[in-house]
Amino acid sequence: MNGTDPLTANIPTPTSARPLLGLTVLVVEDSRFACEAIRLLCLRSGARIRRADCLHSARRHLQVYRPSVAIIDLGLPDGNGADLIAELSTSQPRVEALLAMSGDTHLEQEALSAGADGFLAKPVTTLSTFQECILAALPPERQPAGPRVIGDEQITPDRIAYQDDISHIADVLEDQPNERALDYVAQFLGGLARSAEDSALEAAASALAQKRAAGMSAASEAAMIAGLIQSRLSQKIAI
């Protein structure tokens, strides 16, 4: 149980319609777009959500309360999410469900080796997939009683969150980015573009990642991404 969280003094019982009722989910994710998707999935499932956008912020949260579920992105601006997973997997009291999340599915084994109970592959948009991954990691007493309807409802995050992420990367690229910053841009934009079905931006992020992995100069790829970012920033969204 997460009795150290002051918001969970009276934990409601999960139901077949809201199987995550009573759970508090800490999402450690730097993408506003990805976090908005998780927020909507939690809302449909009955769970509460708190967000941290980096490892430092997550550790500050965890000094105050212990969530029922932690969903940790593996690529964060200040380090590898697998490090936080390793810390939480051995802490007491342990988080009841500890999940890794990434658009790079080859990182699943690294996350499981670090102590994760499961892996969510981005984009996470299907309600049934989200619920099943969390429920599979929870102890029996936290499971809803009786049969449960498995739906295929999909959620669509607000596009304003996508624009916020684009603005974030524009800030990263504003000054001449170093090698670590370029690696972060490639990782962040790859997952974001895939989630938002932005094929041109996804291809550019993939090209940058390939050049970085090969140890080659990526000046032209970075310039291509900078141009795409500016193009998307110029697109106005009617609010």
From TrEMBL:
SUPFAM superfamilies: CheY-like. This is Response regulator receiver domain-containing protein. Keywords: Phosphoprotein. The modification 4-aspartylphosphate is found at residue 73. Residues 24-137 form the Response regulatory domain. PANTHER family: RESPONSE REGULATORY DOMAIN-CONTAINING PROTEIN (PTHR44591:SF3), STRESS RESPONSE REGULATOR PROTEIN 1 (PTHR44591). CDD domains: REC (cd00156). GO terms for biological process: phosphorelay signal transduction system. It comes from Sulfitobacter brevis. The keyword Membrane does not apply.
